[in-house]
Design goal:
The protein contains eight helices and nine strands. With 325 residues, it is of the alpha/beta class. The chain has a single domain, classed as 3-Layer(aba) Sandwich (Rossmann fold). Helix 3 packs across helix 4 and helix 7 packs across helix 8. The longest helix is centred in the first third of the chain and has 32 residues.
């Protein structure tokens, strides 16, 4: 199913899209003199399973994005300082710049987030950059089972949104040593007692399926924050449905020969079945869970992103849509 990158809402032909669309080659020219700070070996180590990325992709897509973000971060920090002067406020310290990364299962969010983290941390002033995924804010499996939500894992209702909002609020308040729960893809669950600590970074990248999802609006006008309210910039990784489907099934088949073989793996049982049976399982998981989540919850948030990266069938980004300021 082919989805247009940035849809114009006009029926009369006028382009009312809030985005400016760049072809790959046009976007790549915006790198200007930004230096390449990653090696080919480092790029290979940053990529996720079944999500190929090359040094050329980093140079053409992510270096221009890194350059743009350096300008945005500097402008935001300047605005914060100006606001503090206006309010005659004492210096409240560093307020982290938060970048949200969203998109479907198997689209390559983790690779994008890790590459951005590595590039941003190597700016000349070497900012401190942290990365947190929202998987840690999923409800534990025992709670999902109690609520009959295991088949909805990854859907908005499967997250402890209150805990995620409190985490982001503490980060934006400049608090020290803010904890986030850890998730294990091996055991497919939140790890009890384990956490990662975020200590006032210059930049925080938050990666997850539904990070642009709006909260249900209250009828009485009460203030209910969205997760994305805390983002200064947001990136949506986009791809056609058919490609996402193929990537998901291929990744599942590759995991049968790698992570699924670990005795502790939640999916250990799938390492022993035939390839035909594994394909049937993967197809069922895609159509019953991941495709539904994509259509109902993830794709509808695409137009809320600051930037949309549109992938082609080979994972190569072909178009970039930048929201006009």
């Amino acid at each position: 199913m082919d989805q247009p990158l940035a849809v114009s809402p006009s029926e009369g032909g006028d382009n009312l899209s809030p985005y400016r669309i760049f072809a790959r080659e046009e976007w790549a020219q915006l790198r200007a003199d930004a230096p390449m700070t990653l090696t080919a070996d480092e790029v290979v180590r940053l990529q996720s399973l079944n999500d190929p990325i090359s040094l050329d992709e980093v140079a053409a897509i992510y270096l221009p994005l890194s350059r743009l973000l350096s300008l945005y971060v500097a402008a935001t920090q300047g605005l914060f300082k100006a606001t503090q002067r206006f309010l005659l406020a004492e210096n409240d310290g560093k307020v982290p710049y938060i970048i949200g990364v969203a998109g479907s299962v198997a689209v390559g969010k983790s690779t994008t987030a890790r590459v951005l983290k590595a590039l941003l941390a190597r700016w000349p002033n070497t900012p401190k950059v942290d990365l947190v995924t929202t998987d840690g804010f999923l409800l534990p499996n025992a709670e999902l089972i109690r609520l009959n939500l295991m088949e909805r894992k990854g859907f908005p209702e499967s997250y402890d949104t209150g805990k995620l909002l409190r985490f982001l609020a503490d980060i934006k308040a400049g608090k020290r040593h803010v904890s986030a729960p850890l998730y294990s893809h091996l055991v497919y669950d939140v790890v009890p007692g384990e956490e990662t600590v975020v200590d006032r970074p210059d930049i925080l990248i938050v990666e997850g399926l539904n990070v642009f999802q709006p909260a249900r609006l209250p009828k009485d006008g009460m203030a209910i924050p969205f997760v994305s309210d805390f983002f200064d910039f947001s990136v949506y990784i986009d791809a056609d449905e058919d490609d996402l489907h193929r990537w998901y099934v291929n990744r599942f088949l590759r995991l049968r020969h790698t992570a699924f073989r670990d005795p502790l793996s939640y999916f250990r049982r799938y390492a022993e079945i035939s390839e035909a049976e594994a394909i049937e399982v993967a197809e069922g998981l895609w159509s019953r869970i991941n495709l539904v989540n994509l259509r109902d919850n993830i794709l509808p948030t695409r137009q809320r992103a600051s930037l949309i990266l549109k992938k082609g069938a080979s994972h190569r980004i072909e178009e970039v849509a930048l929201r006009r300021l």
